[in-house]
Amino acid sequence: MSRMTREENLHWLNEEIRTWENECQSKHPIKEALYAARRALEQEPRWIPVSEGLPKDIKPVQITWKNNDPETYYQDIKGKHFTGTAHYKDGKWYWYSDVTEDFLAEYGRCDICEFDSAIEVVAWMPMAEPYEAESEDKE
Question: Taking the domains of the chain in order of start, what are their residue ranges?
Answer without folding.
Answer: 6-43, 48-126
